[in-house]
Each structure stands twice: as C-alpha cells, then as structure tokens.
Amino acid sequence: GVIREYWFDVVNKTLAPDGVERITLSINGSIPGPTITADWGDTIVIHVTNSMQNNGTSIHWHGIRQVNSTAQDGVASITQCPVAPGDSITYTWKATQYGTTWYHSHFSLQAWNGVFGGIVIRGPASAPYDEDKGIVMLSDWFHQTTDQLYAQASSGGPPIANNGLINGLNVYGSGGSRFETQFASGDSYRLRLVNTAIDTMFKFSIDNHTLTVISADLVPIVPFDTTALNVGIGQRYDVIVKADQEPGNYWLRAIPQLTCSSNEMTLNITGIVTYDDLPVQDPVTAPWAYVDDCADPALGTLVPFVSLDAEAATTEQVMDVGLAIVNGFFKWTLNSNTFLSDWGEPTLAKVLTPSSVFTDEENIITLNQTNTWTYLVIESALGLEHPFHLHGHDFFILGQKPMVTFGDDSELNLSNPMRRDVAMIPASGYLAIAFQNDNPGVWLAHCHIGWHTSQGFALQLVEREADIPVASNMETIEDTCTAWNTYQDAVD
Ligand code: C2O
C-alpha cells in the first residue's frame, strides 16, 4: 500500500447548503468535507488543524477498526483530549477494510454543524458495474446550530429538521440547488450511500429503478435487489443501479421515516438522475410504494459475502436502555448509567496510568481475555428504534428481535451472521451483537442519534488493557491534553 496524505482545517464559516445562510463548522470550508480516497491496504495520514475559536475538535474515522492504533480513533474524552483552538493533530491509520465509510467530528454535537465527509477505500466488489459514482451522503439539516438546538432537544424533545441534504445540496423555498447525476442508457452505476443525519432514518430510492445492494457498512454482502432501502444513521450501503428505463429525468429520494425520526412528511429531500445528457428538469416520476418504518433489512437478507461464524460467549452482558428526566433534562441510560465525557483526561490515558480510578459515569466494561468472544445484548422497552454503533469492531448480529426481554443464547444465530458497525435496536425489542476480543484498545459504543449520544447513551469497552501499546498511544494523548488543558485553564 501507499501513503495517502490529507490536510484538514476545521473552520467556522457562513455557508448556505440549501440556499439559507447560517454559521457552519466545516472541513476546509465545504459541506461535506473532502472525500478520502484510498486503496485497500494503504496508510492514511490526516493532518487536522483546529482553526475555530472557543471550540475543541477531534475527527473520528467511522467504522475503521484501528487495529493496534486505538489512539487514532479520534474520540475526544475516550482516546484523546479535544484538539485545542490553534492546535493540530496528525492521525495515521491503515485501511485494513474496504468499501464506503465516513469521518465526522467526535467532539460534542459538532459533526452536525457540518464537520463530516466521505471515505472510499477501493477493493473487490461482490457484483460488477460500469462506473463508480462515489459517495452519496444523506443528511438532515437545520437552519440553526446544534448548540442552539441542544437545550430544546434535551428538555422539549428533538427539534424538527428544516431540511435535508444530498451531498450537501438541496433546495429550500426558491433557493439552493439539487444534487444531480447523469446516467448513460444501459450502463450500471455504483452509489455509495451514507446516512450522516443527527436524527433521521432515510429510505433511499430512485423512481422506477431497482437497487442491487452489494455491501453494508464495510462488509461486502451477497447481492440482493430492492426498490427502497432503509439507511439508518451512521450506516452505509453500496448499491448498483442499472440505467434500464426510458431516457428522461428521475427523482432520487431520501425519505425521512417518521416512525423514528423527528421530521416532517413535507421534507422533500431529492436529487435528479438524468439520462443521456438530456436537459435536466424536475422529473414527473412517482415514488415506489413504501411502508414508513425504521428496521434494518431482515437479517436473512443481509448475508456477508465472506462467510464467518461466531463462537460461544465467554463474556455476556445484557443491558437495558432507559430514559430518565434529571432536573428537567433527558438522560439516556445504558447499563443503568448515563455516560459523561471527561474532556480533560481521556479514558485511554487513565487505562495506561495504572493507579487511575473510574467512575460509574464512565460506564466501562472491561474485557481481558485474548480472542474470546463477548456478547452484548441491548434490550429496549421503549417504542423507538436506535442505531447502535460500536467502535473498533465489525460486530456480528446474532439477534435483532421485536421482543423486549432476551431469553437465552438459543435465540441467537451464530452461522455467518451479518457483520457491520451500526445496527438498529428494534423498538420494544433487543439487539444481540458479538465480537472477538481481537483488538486491544478503548472503544466507545453508543446510539448514533447525535442528541442521544450527548444525553449519555454510551458505554466504553476497555479491551485487553495489558496489550495496548503505551508509548505510541501516550504520545497522542500528551500532545492533545497539554494544549487542551492549557486552553481550558486560560478560559476558566
Ligand atoms: Cu460515527 Cu462514535 O461514531
């Protein structure tokens, strides 16, 4: 593999993705930020500078396993301190997987002010196509900042999005412009879908066209066909679309699923597919029939192309999702605890400093046995789906059922289960995931609804503490923490 180097400047900037100006935070002044493109096996080096005032940052490479590089995971309060204003950090990691993913800020609610972008790692595909159209990012969008909206989100309920974006574009009133793409009759195209929303499940479709789904997150699957595909927050799907319709214009749609999203039916999040260089016009095509829902495709539909079985658990933890109101503010609990960030001393620093003590708010599960299997079962009695994400692993989905109470392991499937890094916890149901303790590090697991992460819906895994290399990891921590704590002292 070769080395691919990028320079990211995180800046405040007034932008108008849908024609409405607002303050945004972005990478290099654009939303989305630059796409990282590499080949399987390459080494990626990203120099990140925080050019904002009064704001920390950290960039997380969503779904990248970070084998032996936990400190490069970019999670403020877990694997590093926030990068202080004016300070820089260099992240280095290896593309050990291939497919489609994204990066986003992992500091507070910053990602959803615009600090995100795509990652394409080229590798074998499980079905042929003529052209790679690259990343198609599906976002919800607000005309205020997430910081302005947080108080409401935490006391009144999640705010309604003003709009949504496709690759950073959409119309609003008479302003803005739509995402457009060209098809040549008879050719087939690969689209790399990413849901970057803070609180929206999108159903993706292209009028009159069938989607052949070839991968889910960073895992190639046995191809299957569908007309409409639920893309949960943080999830990715690569689809192949054949230009097999009458030449013309067709709507491409990201339809918010109201069952689990705080959005309105009227949000019209569309792009235009145009055939054979015809004039681009608003299409007159009709959407495929669909049912509003927030479920992942049924587990039998998602079958990994490379077959692997899970093994029996050595550690198994069943936990419940809870929602409490503390002093008028929503707090989510997992494992009975609400997760709280400690910006000034990240977990990894504590783990590497033997005398440290952890508090309940750090919500830690310690896994010390090498290469044994861990099962996490998350039960949710609430009638709302949650996109559950784990860092550092592609987990195996052993069960995902509309049953609030998990019985025992006989309910689980261990034979080539779907593997990915975000799966939906069903409404009034449970999600059972498994992984092998094969990646020493500190890994966050959380609901990828941005408000929920900030409201404490998270836990941490400290995996094989004794095998985490000390010197290389401490370097990242010391770099960021010295600058961050100096900045904090000056502010206080
Ligand atoms: Cu997409 Cu914890 O992240």
Describe the structure.
- The chain is mainly β and 492 residues long.
- It folds into three domains: 1-125, Cupredoxins -  blue copper proteins (Immunoglobulin-like), CATH 2.60.40; 127-304, Cupredoxins -  blue copper proteins (Immunoglobulin-like, Sandwich), CATH 2.60.40; 315-482, Immunoglobulin-like (Sandwich).
- 9% of the residues lie in helices and 41% in strands.
- The protein is built from four helices and 32 strands.
- It has helices at residues 146-155, 347-351, 450-454, 470-491, and strands spanning 3-15, 22-27, 36-39, 43-50, 59-62, 88-94, 99-105, 116-122, 131-141, 163-166, 171-172, 175-176, 179-183, 188-195, 202-206, 211-216, 219-226, 229-231, 236-242, 249-256, 270-275, 315-326, 329-334, 364-367, 373-380, 386-390, 395-401, 419-420, 422-425, 429-436, 441-447, 458-463.
- The N and C termini lie far apart (46 Å).
- The model has no long low-confidence stretch (mean pLDDT 96).
